[in-house]
Amino acid sequence: MKIHYVPTLLLLGATLLFLLLAAGLLLKGRAVRRSARTFRSRAVHSTATVVAIEAKDLALGSSPDTRYFPRVSFVPAGASEPVEALTLTDVPAPPPGVGDEIEVAYDPEHPERVDARATEGDVEGAGRTWFILALLAALTAAGVAAAWLVLAFVVWTS
Question: What three-state secondary structure class fits 108?
């Protein structure tokens, strides 16, 4: 069997780069999940007044998915001035109207970080996009490595 060095270095180098990318994306996903757990553990619950609704369209494929993010105003515990902030999470449709009150959770150290309690629950969804991207990068690395194996054992040995 004759080893072709340039394609071998390119394919195995690409495999290594995709594996490093997958590891980086996995670490980012873990950091996002850890941040969500930390937020949930120290969050303070409050009632806030909706001052506006921002609709954002997320297009996956051909059909857009509209998500509603309330802009709320509330007075944090121990403060005298109200804080106005856009929630980090969306609320289920139909969204609340302007002037309605909703339950929120906020970070006492950074009151502008507000989460709508309507979506409160597990933090298992946090970082999911990063984990999916890491999986795709790892699968791509496996595909590139498999392509090198096919070249090495099928094409180059003939």
Answer: coil
Residues listed for the chain: 158
What is the rounded distance in angstroms from the CA atom of residue 21 to the CA atom of residue 93? Answer: 36
Q: Where in the sequence is the domain holding 78, given as residue range(s)?
A: 5-155
Cβ–Cβ under 8 Å, residues 43 and 107: yes
Q: What is the 8-class DSSP label of residue 42?
A: H
Instruction: Report residue 9: phi and psi, to 5°.
Output: -65, -40
Torsion of CA 14, 18, 19, 25, to 10 degrees: 160
SS3 19: helix
Beta-bridge partner residues of 64 = 59
Structure tokens at 10: 């390119």
Strand order in the sheet with 63-74: 83-86, 63-74, 44-60, 101-106, 114-116
Two tokens at 90? 């969306």
Overall pTM > 0.70: no
pLDDT digits (tens, 9 = 90+) for 6-16: 888 898 899 99
Total domains in the chain come to 1
Strands (E), 27-140: 44-60, 63-74, 83-86, 101-106, 114-116
Tokens of 125: 């969804």
